[in-house]
Structure formats: C-alpha cells, structure tokens
Design brief:
Blueprint lengths: L8 H25 L4 H13 L3 H17 L3 H17 L3 H11 L4 H11 L18 E2 L2 E2 H6 L5 E4 L5 E6 L4 E5 L1
Antiparallel strand pairs: 1-2, 3-4, 4-5
Helix pairs in contact: 1-2, 2-3, 2-4, 3-4, 4-5, 4-6, 5-6
Length: 179
C-alpha cells in the first residue's frame, strides 16, 4: 500500500499544501543565508501568494524590489515587478498591474508580455513560450504534470565520485537528475 498513489482532488490539494510548507521553510533559510539576495525574498513572496497570504507576499515583494534595485539584479527585478502586478490584479487594481508588467518588459519581455495579455483578457501566444500544450506549467523545461504523475527515475547509474545520475522519459518531457 505504500506504493499506492491516489489522484483524488483532495489528495492533490493536500500534497500542494505540504510542498508549499516545505518551500516556505527552505526559502526562509535562503533569506537567512543570503539576506542581500533578492531571489530568496521573491521566492518566499511567491509561496505566500500561493498560500493566499497576500499581505505577507506584498511586504516581501517590496523587500525583494529594494534589494534587486540596489544590487542591479535586473532579471529578479522584472520577476518582482511581475509578482507585484499579479498581486495588484488580484486586488482589482488592473492599472497598477499593467504598469508593473510594463516596467518588467525591459528585463523579462516574454513573461511580461504573457502577463499583460492575461490582464488585457487577450489570448497570450504560448507558442512563443515553447509550450507544447496551452496553459502548461514548465519548470526548467519539464512539464509539471508529467513529473507529478510519475516522478520515479527509470534509469540510474552510480559514478565513481558517488554521484548518481538518473533519466526518465515522460509523455512530454525528459528528466535528467544528478545527485
């Protein structure tokens, strides 16, 4: 029974809560280890947004914005601006949301363009994102649904250095792991 995996909606919601709680712990540690790097604050703000903790997400996004500007972390700055645009849109302030996405165009045009299209209620051109399926979420080129449906690695090899390598081919993705 340990190998039995159910796919009921409540199981997915429960698994999501666990993953977000784990992510929160790791990003809190990241902030402690690298307090002058905006990425830790940005990622924790995203986790808070996904947990519907909008006030905390807004506060951390402001912190991340200041750090990114001070350190000239342009890509991270654009990501923070997009996050702030999403927060504004969820609060009903579409003008502010559009302004934030416009600011992000300089450093992250593709992501900003897609978010602006969503704000303008037009259909984003996902083909430019290289997504095979409309609305698919990718992490490092891996389709999230593929990985969550079958995360077991099929082929493994142990190298002399003690590093393990693995490969699995999923319906729309190929994953290589090294650990």
């Amino acid at each position: 029974l340990d190998e039995l995996v159910t796919r009921l909606p409540e199981d997915a919601a429960y698994q999501r809560q666990i993953l977000l709680a784990d992510a929160e712990k790791w990003f809190q540690k990241t902030q402690l280890m690298a307090p002058q790097d905006a990425i830790g604050s940005l990622n924790l703000a995203i986790v808070y947004l996904l947990q519907n903790r909008r006030a905390e997400a807004q506060s951390l996004s402001q912190r991340a914005l200041g750090i990114a500007q001070a350190n000239r972390q342009n890509k991270t700055l654009a990501d923070v601006q997009i996050l702030q645009g999403i927060l504004a849109a969820q609060s009903g302030n579409t003008d502010l949301a559009q302004g934030q996405c416009q600011k992000a165009m300089a450093n992250s045009p593709e992501l900003a363009r897609v978010n602006l299209a969503v704000l303008n209620q037009s259909k984003p051109n996902l083909s430019e994102q290289k997504a095979a399926v409309k609305g698919v979420e990718l992490i490092e080129g891996v389709f999230l649904d593929d990985f969550l449906s079958n995360p077991q690695i099929k082929v493994t090899a142990e190298l002399k250095t003690g590093t393990f390598c693995g490969k699995t081919i999923l319906p729309q993705s190929t994953i290589f792991m090294h650990y």
